[in-house]
Amino acid sequence: MPDEENIEHGYVKTGPAMQKKVRDAKDVEIRLDAQLCFAIYGAAHAFTRTYKPLLDPLGLTYPQYLVMIALWEEDGQPVKAICEKLGLDSGTLSPLLKRLEQSGLVARKRDRDDERQVRISLTAKGAKLKSQAAGVTQAIGKALGCSLDEAAELRDGLVALRERLLSASEG
């Protein structure tokens, strides 16, 4: 059980938009609605559900869509670079790439300079899909129901949170 010294920030969320000063470790109640991680988990699931009907006509799952975005940003990347960008291990990414290749959206080729590396490149069909996917971002923006500035602020806060958590888990 944590004591007050281990709760550095001194506050816990006890419900929507409420904060309660922690006076004693006994005051820390473990509830789902008080967990930041659960709120983020729920939001991630809501995002996935919102993306599904938008991506189905493109023949993509959400993780495949993320791979395609990475390739639309920079084509011909090594598998390792895509893994790093998406925060996935090669065991998770490989089946995604295989399905994208079977769909004719990407091609996997050994690097000429380093045969140990596999590079992923868009096919003409994969490159063309980018224009069809343009409406996805707009539809998600509309579903968010907030301004571009608010969305950017949320994203930046989540990126900073991820970086702090990664630093904490490494150190």
Topology:
Layout: E1 11-15, E2 18-21, H1 36-55, H2 62-73, E3 77-78, H3 79-86, H4 90-102, E4 106-110, E5 118-122, H5 124-144, H6 148-170
Antiparallel strand pairs: 1-2, 3-5, 4-5
Helix pairs in contact: 1-5
Explain how this protein is built.
57% of the residues lie in helices and 12% in strands. With 171 residues, it is α+β, with helices and mostly antiparallel strands. Helix 1 packs across helix 5 (124-144). The longest helix is centred in the C-terminal third of the chain and has 23 residues, at 148-170. It is globular, with a radius of gyration of 21 Å.
Mean pLDDT across residues: 86
Structural class, from helix and strand content? alpha+beta
What would you call the quaternary organization? single chain
Ranges where pLDDT stays below 50 over 5 or more residues in a row are 1-7, 10-18
β-strand amount: 5-15%
Q: Kindly report the spatial arrangement of strands forming the biggest sheet.
A: 3-5-4
List keywords for this structure.
single chain; 171 residues; alpha+beta; 3-stranded antiparallel sheet; 6 helices; 5 strands; 57% helix
Quick summary:
This protein has 171 residues and is of the alpha+beta class. It has six helices and five strands; from the N terminus they run ββααβααββαα. The chain has a three-stranded antiparallel β-sheet with strand order 3-5-4. Strands 1-2 form a two-stranded antiparallel sheet.
